[in-house]
Amino acid sequence: MSFEISTVNVNGLRAAARKGFVEWLGSTGADAVCLQEVRAEPGQLPAEAGAPAGWHVVLVPSAAKGRSGVAVYSRAEPDAVRTGFGVEEFAGSGRYVEVDLGAVSVGSLYLPSGEVGTERQEEKERFMAAFLPYLVRRRAEVEAAGRELVVCGDWNIAHREADLKNWRANRRSSGFLPEERAWLSRVFEEVGLVDVVRDLHPGVEGPYSWWSYRGRAFDNDAGWRIDYQVATPGLAARAVKARVERAASHDLRWSDHAPVSVVYGAS
Asked: Which residues pair with 35 in a beta bridge?
């Protein structure tokens, strides 16, 4: 039986709910939806966004009010839930949650965005250094148990030149730094996980998933591909279709990101 997973940074779920997220959720065919940058606690959300009919919601807010926060919405009730990835510094950061849905573990990741020359970039680097061993361990654990893993979310790194429109102007910008790109290469080459969307769209520009609200970035499709579904090889091999659900026009956007959706075929 095939299933679909979507992931999107909502840029504040309360605002997104007012702008169109609720309608999108009601129309999606996804079996699981991963959210990042929720920036709200469950009690702060309207029912149609925080506890929508037909969905099981696991929401992990940040201890810092109004920041970060991740969630997984699923049609089926999760068999297990894991919050964080075992590193004390990031235990209350609201940056990672993982749920077991049948034979697949689905993670929602909000990797720090960073800013060159600031503590935010240092935090991002510490996060990456801590998260890589977790991915190594989880891949081994799930495959030893005959299961699969997909880590969906805002990875805040454009891996290749094809992953952002204006790459020449951003070579010294957080999100496209050589050391960040090299780290993501390690995720794919050393850990052995697969960039599912790129695997299905080889040799093309994008498809971009984030556009700045400034200027005419969206209208000119001057975007970045920083939202990924990164899966174990067995699951990635089952991916049959991937798409970025780009809004038809700038005024119809409910986030500066667009949902990235993948359909996986039966095993």
From this structure: 8, 71
**pLDDT tens digits along 81-126:** 999 999 999 999 999 999 999 999 999 999 999 999 999 999 999 9
pLDDT at 149: 98
Q: Which amino acid is at 8?
A: V
Q: Select which of 73, 96, 110, 264 is catalytic.
A: 110
Annotated binding site for Mg(2+): 9, 37, 154, 156, 256-257
Our count of domains for the chain comes to 1
Catalytic residue among 73, 163, 257, 264: 257
187-238 pLDDT, tens digit each:
999 999 999 999 999 999 999 999 999 889 999 999 999 999 999 999 999 9
Helices and strands in the chain, H and E counts: 7, 12
Q: How large is the average pLDDT for residues 147-167?
A: 98
Q: What's the CATH code of the domain at 34? A: 3.60.10.10
DSSP string, 72-103: EEESSPPSEEEES-S-GGGTTS--EEEEEETT
Q: Which of 31, 154, 195, 227 is catalytic?
A: 154
134 catalytically annotated: no
Q: Is 154 a catalytic residue?
A: yes
- In the chain, DSSP assigns E strands to 3-9, 32-36, 56-60, 70-74, 80-83, 96-101, 104-110, 148-154, 194-195, 227-231, 239-244, 260-264
Q: Which domain holds residue 239?
A: 3-264
